[in-house]
Amino acid sequence: MMIFSYIALAFSAIALIKAQRQIPVLNPSFIPIPLLGFGTWNLDKSNASDVVSVALETGYHHIDCAAAYGNEREVGAGIAQGLKKAGLRRSDIWVTSKLWNDHHRPDLVAKGFFKTLSDLDVDYLDLFLMHWPVGSSDFDYISTWHAMETLLLTKKVRHIGVSNFSPYQISRLIASSTMAPFAHQMELHPYLQQSDWVLWHQSHGIHVTAYSPLANANPTYHNGDKNTPPPLLETNVMKEIAKERGCTTAQVALAWGISRGASVIPKSAHASRIIENFAAPECDLTYEDFKTISRLGAKHLTRFNNPSKSWGFDLYEGLDDA
Fold first, then answer.
1. Torsions phi, psi of 88, nearest 5?
2. How far apart are CA 246 and CA 138, in angstroms?
3. Whether 221 is catalytic
4. Catalytic residue among 6, 60, 69, 316, which?
5. Cα first-last separation, the chain
6. pLDDT tens digits, residue range 37-92?
7. CB burial class (10 A; 0-12, 13-18, 19+) of residue 29?
């Protein structure tokens, strides 16, 4: 029964997305979070500026960053370069960044935030996330969140949110705070669909952003494990859907993610793929496609990003493939 309610939700989301693409942004100071973004994880410093500039010139209006990626200065230079070349203002785009684990102590939160602002060379962030629910000290993520709430008073960040939280952690955070997260960024792709978890967020008014939306197309996940499923974009299932819809397999995966009302933030250092991914919203999937992808996910359920063992901390409790 779940698959049918999920598919109905997906088609409703597609209709909303297409309608939104036709509505001009009358007040750029309140640009909503775009459903197609550009990720900067693993972008090499040597070309990060040029790559981000190409993304903005292509039409992306959503750039996802993080202090932990070690490239925010270069990404910031790319944002400035891309805005100039595309004839855009800062307020025409959405910029997200994240607080790293070593700045969870409440008195360090603002320091981490303003370091990110300085490195990106922007006046404000649209969204600032707590990257993980675990820090490099004994400080609880609740006190970290309360310190993040005070950042809103600076008018230098529009929204705050979280990333990689479990159901218990986010429920506890909401119950202990005056403000719920605006957004939750998590690993989501056809191999890790987490449909119930996505629906929970939507029912609570929390936006979802999907990182690694192309699954194990990310070279970080190529660890040689014999139990790792085949590369998502090379499966016959994705190839057949792509052929039927006149799309690429990457566009199918991204369109699937967007169809659920989640933002997707694919990364590429290649201009041709940046352009290819940008066309994903035009890839129209059918009812049968959603059912087929659902079965693919059930067969190859895999979470690729789980540092629980190396960090000695139980992450993703209660979620698929924890």
1. -110, 160
2. 52
3. no
4. 69
5. 24
6. 999 999 999 999 999 999 999 999 999 999 999 999 999 999 999 999 999 999 99
7. exposed
Q: Are the C-beta atoms of residues 72 and 65 closer than 8 Å to each other?
A: yes
Q: Which two tokens stand for residue 206?
A: 């929390």
Please report, for residues 77, 273, 304, 313, the alpha-carbon distance to residue 250 in angstroms, rounded to integers and kept in the order given.
Answer: 28, 9, 18, 33
pTM: 0.91
